[in-house]
Amino acid sequence: MSLRKYLTSRAFFTQVFLAALIIALLGYLFMHWLTFTTDHGNEITVPDLSKLTEEQVEEKLDELDLSYVLLDSVDYRSNYPKYSVVQQDPLPGEKVKEGRKVYIKINSSGFSSVRVPDLIEKTYREAVPTLKALGLEEGTITYIPNLGKDMVLEMRYKGRNIKPGDRVLKSSKIDLVLGDGKASYEEEVTDTIIANPATEEMPNEQ
């Protein structure tokens, strides 16, 4: 039988069909083997551990055949309970394999304290970034008559005056008293004379 007749014969097409069937069957068995060895389809959804204590985290993850690693604590956040989870990786809802480790960060026990920076005679635009860099917040802004427009004249905390170097808790709000730039030079001189009357020259007695 010639090659041309063989390629168009029924026997050839039967063999091609059987070969394709065998390849498909082997592919099917290989995919099932791969799925079994990689545990595909048995992924675990990472739970939300936010605001849980370390003990609660361990108990919850044990039930899911997951484990955790405590990285460190973060600065105190008032909207989270003390010693509760603030951050986690992987995030809630992500799919992971059995035995995967979840990395967590815990809220500290309270605010740490910082020293109040020297903002006196600095501008408002300079003062605010300095406060934020130290973990402090801008509080109430009050203006009083003074030649220095937007210049910091006083710093206050909870209604009392504070000075540079005083310690306050992180995230505290520092109120600033600023100059309004409306006081004239004459008013400044007058206020100085009134505040220091002893500087006036006394007439000579004859």
Automatic annotation (TrEMBL):
Residue stretches spanning the membrane: 12-34
Stored CDD domains: PASTA_pknB
Keyword Transmembrane helix found: yes
Keywords (A to Z) from UniProt: Membrane, Transmembrane, Transmembrane helix
Pfam families attached to this UniProt entry: PASTA
Transmembrane among keywords: yes
Superkingdom assignment: Bacteria
Residues annotated as domain PASTA: 41-108, 110-180
Protein name as annotated: Membrane protein
Taxon lineage: Bacteria, Pseudomonadati, Bacteroidota, Flavobacteriia, Flavobacteriales
